Amino acid sequence: MKMILTSMHVMYRMIRPVLFFFDSERVHNSAIAFGERIGNKQRLRHIIAKLLDHSFDSLRQNISGITFSSPIGLAAGFDYEARLTRIISALGFGFSTVGTLTYHPYEGNPRPMLGRLPKSRALVVNKGFKNLGVQETLRRLSGEKFSIPIGISIGKTNTDTIKTQEEAVADVVAGFQDAELSGVQFAYYELNISCPNLKGNIEFYLPAHLEELLKAVGKLSISRPVFVKMPIIKTNDEIRSMLSVCERYGFVTGVIFGNLQKDRTHPCVVSKESERYPKGNLSGLPCRDRSDELISLAYTEYGKRFVVVGCGGIFTAEDAYRKVKLGASLLQLITGLIYEGPQRVAEINLELARYLTRDGFKSISDAVGSAHR
What we know:
TIM Barrel, eight-stranded parallel beta barrel
């Protein structure tokens, strides 16, 4: 397996400059279409899964009644049209989130919606919840049986017609209602309250606003675990206030840290690169340190209450393992996949299993939060 992964790694390094020569959005769309075609061919899908054999008992976890074969998941924002659910497990992912979906469809913010900052190890993201809408997206998944847990991310429709907090809450609730009634066998929800690329002044960061939203969602008697996608742009005290609100609602199973970085003065950001994309916010390396800090905060102060999911700046197994030791039971990535190649998740799985053996842990669950013990 190691030889196969190394060969794929070298091959991707060779073709990456060609891919990066073309428009980011165009390459993304082509990759989605290619992945969908492969996913629809069962034999080819099985061959890829065999080549990227990623099954390690030490990485298996049961969280909130859901079995995760690997702690590595595909974050929301990549497969926002639900076209990769058949191929994603063959790459080594233990779970994947579709979306973010909204009650009404949205065609996306004005282009460019996506840009690469190679020297900064980042992407500029400005999609603004581009999606087909909850109903149409889940219609595509009707009758599907998933080989790994698939989650649905839901957020507020990105439109100027929503002018009040009350209207925004009603819009999010309508999205959850459609998902609950869809009959699709997805495993969990993400509630995305932290996208910084939306229109208007609606936000759910203030405790009173978050309380209003969670209270309304809670009235639906949600049938699946809910993970709240949190911001990384707020202070520790602001995050504590938000966690305190989430704590009061039993249907909130976990929190995800976190979403995009707005600070373009971050030391890793090369200003000449970022100037090419004046609109949008950053994924990848600029998110890493703050994500780590908030994972640690959430685990040490709320680890007995919430499952913590780490997202932001995961490029290597070392990045993944550090977040696990800080308190993340599950991990999500996108940018690392784009910079390192489709074999990267299988590489991380292999190395994570080795790290656990080296450090005397029988399972990934034993390593969660070990940096604090």
